[in-house]
Specification:
It contains 10 helices and 10 strands. The chain is an alpha/beta fold and 298 residues long. Strands 2-3-1-4-5-6 form a 6-stranded mixed sheet, with helices on one face. Strands 7-10 form a two-stranded antiparallel ribbon. The chain has a two-stranded antiparallel ribbon with strand order 8-9.
Amino acid sequence: MIEVRFHGRGGQGAKIASRILGRSGFLCGLYAQDFALFGAERRGAPVISFTRLSAGPVEERGPIDRPDLIVVMDDSLTEEAPGQVFHGVNDRTPILVNTEPARLQASLTHLPPANYAAIDLNAIARRHIGKAIVSATAAGAAAKSIPAITLDSLAQAVRAEVAEFGSAPDLIDKNIAAAREAYERAPAIDLAHLPAAGPTAETALETPPYLASSQFAGPTIRQRANAALRVTGNWRIERPEIDLAKCKRCFLCYLYCPEAAMRLDAENFPHVDYEHCKGCMICYEECPTDAITRRLET
C-alpha cells in the first residue's frame, strides 16, 4: 500500500488533490481511500488530506502517520505548521514542495532531514489556469511516483472531479493540462523500494489526551479576544490593492470582507489590513468601480 499526505491551505484544493489521486488509482484498478482533515479556520488555514492506494483492500482507517510521500502545496507551512508537515517523517521520506528549487535549497538548513524535491506548482497552475489553484497540479505531481497510474487515468480523474463543481469545459481542460505538465515535470520516486530510513519525527496528529477525559468536553480557550493576535497575512497568495482615486466609498469591500480585514480611515476610505487579509479577493470581485486590483505576492 502507498500512503500519500497532502499539506495545503484552505482554498488551494488539498482535498480535491487527494480525491483526484484516489480516483486516478481507482481507474487503474487499485483500491483507493481519500479524506481530509480541517481545522477551525477558513480560507488559508492549514489543511491535511490523505490518499491510500493499494493492490488489495484498504483495511486501515484514520490519518496517515508514516507517509510514503508528502506533497506540500504551500512552502510556508514547513515553518508555520512543522508539527503537521513533518509528522512521521524520516530522512528518506520523499517530500515534494511547491516552490522554486533555489528557494527550497536556501531553506534546507532549517528543515528536518528528508528527501526533498521542489516543483513550482503555482507557476504551472498560473500558466494553464490563470490562478494558483494547485489541486490538479499537486495530484499530477504525486501520481508520477505511483507506477500504476497513467496519464490517461489522471486526465479522466481531473475531468470527473473538477466537473463536480460545475466548471466550464474550458476550465476543466485547463486543469487537465496543468496536471499533465506537473506529472511530466515531477521527479519519479520509487516508493516501493525506498532504502532503510532513520528514526521518524515526533508525531503531532494524535488527539490530545485530555479530549478523552470526562473533565473536558473539548479544547478550552481561556483568553478573551485573541483573534487579532493571530497574523494570517502570510497565508495569502494574492493581495488586493486599492486605488483611492477611484474609490466611491460605497463600503462594499468593508461589508463583504469575511475576515474584517478592511479598515476605514477618518474620511471613510477603506484600507487593507495586510496582517490579517487572507487574499480571498472578494473585495476585488465586489468593487463596482474597479478601484481594487489583484497582485501576486512576492
